From TrEMBL:
The keyword Signal applies. The lineage of its organism: Eukaryota, Viridiplantae, Streptophyta, Embryophyta, Tracheophyta. The chain crosses the membrane at residues 249-271. It comes from Paspalum notatum var. saurae. It comes from the Eukaryota. Belongs to the cysteine-rich repeat secretory protein family. Plasmodesmata-located proteins (PDLD) subfamily. InterPro entries: Cell2Cell_Antifungal (IPR051378), GNK2 (IPR002902), GNK2_sf (IPR038408). Pfam families: Stress-antifung. Residues 1-25 form the signal peptide. It is a single-pass type I membrane protein. It is found in: Cell junction, Plasmodesma; Cell membrane. Keywords: Cell junction, Cell membrane, Disulfide bond, Host-virus interaction, Membrane, Repeat, Signal, Transmembrane, Transmembrane helix, Transport. PANTHER family: ANTIFUNGAL PROTEIN GINKBILOBIN-2-LIKE, PLASMODESMATA-LOCATED PROTEIN 7. CDD domains: Gnk2-like (cd23509). This is Gnk2-homologous domain-containing protein.
Length: 272
């Protein structure tokens, strides 16, 4: 079973926890995807603790105003927090998603020097590991599934994913991109600290992962350090569809043993 194999492979580096799924509705924008917390910790009474409070408060306050922003702790220029919402969604969705993400971080990554959480519609990360503005195409989470398709589905998928890479997306707001071909839809989202070229490169890496790793699957999603991409067949609603469970999704969890995220303990939602 794929999940068992993945867990066994990852355990030396990562601690894996299966969380109950919080919702199955296609519009559950706050549904959990993955989280990671650094092993380094800070003291509750330290200046670092007030810095974390400060950046996460700024993140929460900014979410109703913009799909992306970054903040530096007033007392520690190395401590940065940022958030990125799916920039095609309304501000109210962004703000609700970011509040949920911050609650998740507080409970999953309590006292961790760095933490990141990805929910369906938003991403929040903080830490002192100089991640701001840096490309990161590390594969953090990957899932393929749906009713098995055929080669015409694969051609539509490749074409829909190709449209994401080709899209001249606005840089502001992290460059949400959408593509479609026949019955297959696709979308991608970068974190707004990447420039246009770095965003395209990240999306290209993400779509490459989906093409190489999802076989004839009719839905897939891959989350890299600074962007993610998804595809799904029309009407299936991707993984969040209530009908999806009936088809028995395949699941693939990848984590690379390089870079900052190698030092993170992963808390991955394996609910399918
Ligand atoms: C980040 O902050 C933690 C907690 O204060 C500290 O232990 C660690 O050394 C810091 N790392 C860097 C790269 O400054
Ligand atoms: C899939 O959805 C897109 C966008 O709604 C639509 O343009 C296209 O015709 C649909 N394709 C099929 C086969 O239903
Ligand atoms: C971080 O935020 C500052 C202040 O809003 C902004 O000027 C800067 O461009 C941002 N940096 C990145 C890499 O997003």
């Amino acid at each position: 079973m794929a999940t068992r194999v993945a867990a066994a492979t990852l355990l030396p580096v990562l601690s894996l926890l299966i969380l109950p799924r919080t919702g199955t509705c296609a519009d559950d924008y706050s549904a959990f995807v993955y989280a990671g917390c650094s092993q380094g910790r800070y003291d509750a009474s330290s200046q670092y603790a007030s810095g974390v409070d400060s950046v996460l408060t700024s993140v929460a306050n900014s979410a109703p105003l913009a799909p992306y922003a970054n903040f530096t702790a007033p007392t520690d220029p190395s401590l940065v927090g940022l958030y990125q919402c799916r920039s095609d969604l309304p501000a109210s969705v962004c703000s609700g998603c970011v509040s949920s993400a911050i609650s998740r971080l507080s409970s999953l990554c309590a006292w961790a020097a760095g933490g990141a959480v990805q929910l369906r519609a938003c991403f929040v990360r903080y830490g002192n590991d100089s991640f701001l503005g840096k490309q990161d195409t590390t594969v953090l989470f990957k899932k393929c599934g749906g009713t098995p398709g055929d080669s015409s589905g694969v051609a539509m998928r490749d074409s829909a994913l190709g449209a994401l890479v080709a899209a001249a997306a606005p840089v502001a707001g992290g460059g949400y991109r959408a593509g479609g071909s026949g019955a297959v839809q696709a979308m991608s989202q970068c974190v707004g600290d990447l420039g246009a070229k770095a965003c395209s490169d990240c999306v290209s890496a993400a779509t490459g992962q989906l093409k190489a790793g999802c076989g004839y699957a009719t839905a897939g999603e891959v989350y890299l350090g600074k962007c993610y991409a998804r595809f799904w067949a029309n009407g299936s609603g991707g993984f969040s569809s209530s009908s999806a469970g009936r088809h028995g999704f395949g699941l693939l969890v990848h984590a690379a043993a390089a870079g900052f995220f190698a030092s993170l303990a992963y808390v991955l939602s394996l609910a399918i």
